[in-house]
Design a protein that fits this description.
Length: 94
């Protein structure tokens, strides 16, 4: 709902990512993947898992978040690769 979109937008604003207006207008989906996926280190199947959420806006921007029970952490601002709403994604571990 709007409550979560507001929390995600606030997290984007505090992170230093560019956020004009409402950064997050919709949620795309979630996936469980390696907790350290935002680091450029070799991944292992035995790594601990974390919930990651992809959200977007009508400008075509995407925002990747790590969702912990007590914290929302923006990891990436995906900008310039899309011109409209992001409808789906497929996470591919490296």
């Amino acid at each position: 709902g709007m409550g979560l979109r507001g929390l995600l937008s606030d997290a984007v604003g505090k992170s230093g990512f560019s956020a004009d207006g409402s950064a997050v207008e919709y949620l795309v989906g979630c996936t469980w993947t390696n907790a350290n996926c935002d680091q450029e280190t070799q991944q292992s199947p035995s790594d601990s898992k974390a919930l990651h959420l992809l959200a977007g806006n009508s400008e075509g921007d995407g925002y990747l978040f790590r969702m912990d029970a007590d914290q929302i952490t923006p990891l990436r601002h995906l900008k310039g690769g899309h011109r409209g709403c992001i409808r789906d994604f497929c996470w591919i571990d490296n």
